[in-house]
Design a protein that fits this description.
Helices cover 52% and strands 12% of the residues. With 208 residues, the protein is an alpha/beta fold.
Length: 208
């Protein structure tokens, strides 16, 4: 097998060409950039089937990002993976509350996970929020409680927890909550997937 000699600045472009050539499913044009970005991040073509999108979610997400919003993540890993230049260009910001001292203390007192308490803290944000979960099912479960109580309704929920305990169930709950969503159905996901989805949505605006 011969090596391909690719200039550093052309590696991403070549990667996307390979993905396009190997995709065995016709993906609708509006969601294709998200699917492609996630496959590029994971090298896992299962996401062509696993990613689920609520109706008109791309248009809604782009609109929110253009107006400026806060992206809340459930891990610092996801936070670090979100492109800061794109955030700045759009006048948006990204935060993660998981390592905050008050979150840890409240979680201990109330017997909750830090992810759940982080959702409570995110509910205090007084501007549009995109909530991106790549790790904790309890974040999505708590988020659904807020949605039911009309106490915190994000503009978009990116649901990508990975694992085995309540992972599938938490994603199904969000898909039935009535809020716009992009969900990695099943057990797969991760912080890298959540960040990739955020980046794909921002690149739709900043890389035209």
């Amino acid at each position: 097998m011969e090596l391909e000699y690719i200039l550093p600045q052309d590696i991403e472009k070549r990667s996307f060409e390979i993905i396009s050539s190997e995709l065995e499913k016709n993906i609708p044009e509006d969601i294709l950039p998200v699917v492609m970005r996630v496959i590029h991040t994971t090298a896992d073509f299962d996401y062509a089937e696993n990613l689920c999108f609520s109706e008109n979610v791309i248009q809604k997400a782009v609109s929110v990002l253009k107006k400026g919003c806060t992206i809340v993540t459930d891990t610092n890993m996801a936070l670090s993976g979100i492109n800061k230049n794109a955030l700045n260009t759009l006048g948006c910001k990204a935060v993660c509350f998981m390592a905050d001292g008050d979150v840890a203390e409240t979680a201990k007192i109330k017997g909750l996970t830090r992810a759940a308490v982080s959702v409570d803290k995110a509910a205090e944000i007084r501007e549009p929020v995109i909530f991106a979960a790549g790790n904790a099912p309890t974040a999505l479960i708590r988020l659904n409680e807020h949605i039911k109580n009309n106490s915190f309704i994000p503009e978009l929920v990116i649901g990508c927890p990975v694992g085995f305990v309540n992972v599938i169930q938490s994603k199904e709950i969000i898909m039935q909550s009535g809020v716009p969503y992009i969900v990695a159905k099943g057990r797969k996901g991760g912080s890298n997937v959540a960040a990739a989805i955020c980046n794909a949505l921002m690149y739709m605006i900043t890389r035209k």
